[in-house]
Amino acid sequence: MVRCLVIAIALLGCGDKQLETLEAVRDEVCACKTPACGEAAMKKVPQDKLESNRKMQHVAHAMLDCLAKLYDADRPSTDPDAEAPTSPGSAAPASAGTP
After folding, report:
1. Can you give the C-alpha Rg of the chain in angstroms?
2. Could you report the average pLDDT of every consecutive run of 10 residues in the chain (99 residues)?
3. Pick from 45, 46, 62, 66: which is nearest to 54 by CA?
């Protein structure tokens, strides 16, 4: 009985460390404002074999969702009626004054 308890604690300890590492990377990816930052944070995901369980999959899914949002925000608009972004020092478009 004691032997089973020791093995269970050892297995849970390894999984918790991997989960904590993955959660730290997820938090870093989700805090990024640019896709380049997100990609740099993703490189910190351990390359060794990770234990796959429901919690690890949930964290990985959340991490990839954050990265996808970064890519979507960086993608230019394909809406022809959307206003073009202007830089703070640029002049207004010529058509802005005509009705």
Report:
1. 23
2. 40 69 95 94 88 91 95 84 62 53
3. 62
